[in-house]
Amino acid sequence: MAEEVATPAPPAGGKSRMWLAIVAVIVAVVIVSAVAVVILTAPPPKYQIELWFNSDGHYGDTEDELATVLKNSIESCGKVQVTLKSEIWATYRQDRNAGRLPFLLMGWYPDYTDTDDYLSPFLTSSGSRGFGSFYSNATVDGWIDDEQTTTDPAVRADRFSKIQQELARDVFLRLTELGEGTEDTRRRAALNELVRQSAEATQLRAVLNTLAEARLITLNEDNAEVAHEALIREWQRLHEWLTQDREGLLLHRHLTESAHEWEVRGHDPAELYRGARLAQAREWVSVNEERLNAEERAFLAASLEQEQHDALEREAQRQRELEAVQKLAETQSRSAQ
């Protein structure tokens, strides 16, 4: 009979140490997991920028409000933190010229209180592009030159009146539905259609307010419309405007509506001009660029870009077909040998 061997008893406290080790591991895992969760779920650090503005009224007394609006708008993306800082004009100008202000507000103000200061920067062909209006009208250039080179208040008032009438002409043409074989009628237009570029919005709004006060148009927050249908039928000057370049007006109206449809459809390439329609528009715009608003300008630019893309694609396809023909000819030549 085999002799029974006694198993030695485990040392005192061994189970306790084992459980302590297990608990320590669990605690460590929990802590690491918690830290990982905090790190992984914490929002990424925001990009920090300083936005500087002039604090002593060089550009007017609304710079701090404008800076706050821009700060809130930028920060709404959730990825940028904006700190506003300001300086008096003398220091601001020095730091700007030295490149020490990477993000800053600039502005425009009249050198002196004169009507010309509110017109010539935005409406002369030589200066308007610098302010983003792209307005170019030789007749208006002449009127501005007249008022700049005379001290006669009557002459200056006459030229300013003519400039307003020219802007009013553009408004009334857009507010008229052009009949083809039928009478012209009223057309409601959105204000952003009437404003060709943001730089001229102030001048145009003044014209619209004047027309509304004279009860020639009805004006609300979003759109404008000719007040009475009879105005289109009976106003001789408007009749002359509508008949001077009827074909051009019809072409421009088609461009306006096509640009709007392209915008509504999310810039669908299928809505762009092509072929003869694009050629006609380019020819008209070459002498009437100042008539375009921002939407029409963008639509035409996209049409031209698409035309170039299509031409390159056709050329690439032609080259591929030519290469295929050459390869086929070489293959047939080798087979014949």
Largest sheet: 3 strands, antiparallel
Distance from N terminus to C terminus (CA atoms, Å) equals 102 Å
Principal-axis shape equals extended
Oligomer: single chain
Strand order of the largest sheet: 5-7-6
**N to C succession of SSEs:** HEHEHHHHEEEHHEEHHHHH
Mean pLDDT value:
82
| Count of strand segments | 7
Strand content: 5-15%
Structural class: mainly alpha
Q: How many DSSP helices?
A: 13
Number of domain modules: 3
- Give me the Rg, rounded: 35 Å
The share of residues in helices is: 55-70%
Uncertain segments are none
Describe it for me?
This protein is mainly alpha-helical. It has three domains: 47-97; 110-243, no CATH class; 245-327. 58% of the residues lie in helices and 9% in strands. The strands form three sheets. It has a three-stranded antiparallel beta sheet. A two-stranded parallel ribbon has the order 1-2. A two-stranded antiparallel sheet has the order 3-4. The longest helix is centred in the C-terminal third of the chain and has 43 residues, at 294-336. The N and C termini lie far apart (102 Å).
Descriptive labels:
7 strands, 9% strand, 3 domains, 337 residues, mainly alpha, two-stranded parallel ribbon, three-stranded antiparallel beta sheet, 13 helices
List the topology elements.
Layout: H1 14-41, E1 47-54, H2 63-75, E2 80-87, H3 89-97, H4 120-123, H5 138-148, H6 153-174, E3 176-177, E4 185-186, E5 189-190, H7 191-194, H8 201-213, E6 217-219, E7 223-226, H9 229-234, H10 236-244, H11 246-264, H12 275-288, H13 294-336
Parallel strand pairs: 1-2
Antiparallel strand pairs: 3-4, 5-7, 6-7
